[in-house]
Amino acid sequence: MLHPAPVRDLLIETANVGIFRARWSDDIHEEWIRSVLANNRKATPDRLARTRALMDAAVPDCLVTNYRGLIPELHLPDPEDRHVLAAAIVGRADVIVTGNLRHFPPEVLGPFGLEAQHPDAFLMYQRDLAPEVFLQCARRIRRRLANPPRTAEEYLASLRRCELALVADTLETSKTLL
Known about the structure:
By secondary structure, the chain is mostly helical. It is built from nine helices and four strands; from the N terminus they run αβααβαβαβαααα. Helices cover 54% and strands 6% of the residues. The strands form two sheets. Strands 1-2 form a two-stranded parallel ribbon. The longest helix has 14 residues, at 26-39. It starts with a helix and ends in a 6-residue tail after the last helix.
């Protein structure tokens, strides 16, 4: 799940410090870009192309390729999501991070050694692996927000709006350090 931006930022920042290895594909990029363009009047293709390039540059070895041949053999409740499963298989992922868990049922993912997790649950697991590092990641993100700058409370509210309530509640206990 590479949008909304607060979710993407936290996933990329935590991947950059090595808590986990992030992987995505060109098709996944196209999907989140289409969604943002459809739901955000201020978004432009040029700005999103820049975001895409920055994401790819920020996370070494993030792009999964050579997965499209698997797509016809895969079966999911929504056939339009097969590219995500194919990229996860080829990219040797353990988890598909998605806000749409019902499209990735355990009985389909299990044989591939995969599971689907909501971003809130996934990020909480990463936080539990390295609490101080996770807090530093959130601090760096909040301090980069300059247009407009955000207080710790505003940053936590943005996480909650993005369905990262558990992450926000956990960071709330350290908000003076954000």
